Amino acid sequence: AQSVTQLDSQVPVFEEAPVELRCNYSSSVSVYLFWYVQYPNQGLQLLLKYLSGSTLVKGINGFEAEFNKSQTSFHLRKPSVHISDTAEYFCAVSAGNQGGKLIFGQGTELSVKP
Amino acid sequence: GAVVSQHPSWVICKSGTSVKIECRSLDFQATTMFWYRQFPKQSLMLMATSNEGSKATYEQGVEKDKFLINHASLTLSTLTVTSAHPEDSSFYICSVPRQGSYEQYFGPGTRLTVT
Prior knowledge:
The complex is a heterodimer. Chain A is mainly β. Chain A has strands at 3-6, 10-14, 19-21, 23-26, 31-38, 44-50, 56-58, 64-68, 73-78, 87-95, 103-104, 108-113.
């Protein structure tokens, strides 16, 4: 079985500062990793995904993440955040033999302050 | 534009009544759709996998007789919350995986409030 742990439930940060949202996973099989963003009362939007290949993945809105197999991590980063990045961020994992089912982490609330 | 739609976007119902939520794939056909529920300030919990042409597959702990899922066509899945109670109040979200890809597209969600 797979599991995902997001290490920070809330991350407050000032505008234009860098941010890192941490995600660790566990799995006995190869996995695919995702970061989603959710704005209040809305569905989820895909930020980026790691399926294979380069371990540094670039996504939308200036976000990037690095897959680290040895540390079973997939941390999300942005060098300079904006007020509009305030939202809930979810890390998710899908195992190749699970028919596409996603297992989500607990979520990290990113709050960008002016 | 939207790839997945849900209807209604929000619904209020009285305890004991049933509510049907629709999930439509707008851009491509889907033999599989997923249903999640999300409580306030919490993560998404997978409830079940909707399968076109066969019964839904429910996750452990989810009552299949309470949450009826029907994959009516290759573009439509419905979730019916039967005999709803206040504890069923939640945000219900569906997702549609694109075949050949591990990417999923999420609907905008349905806010259910049971009074």
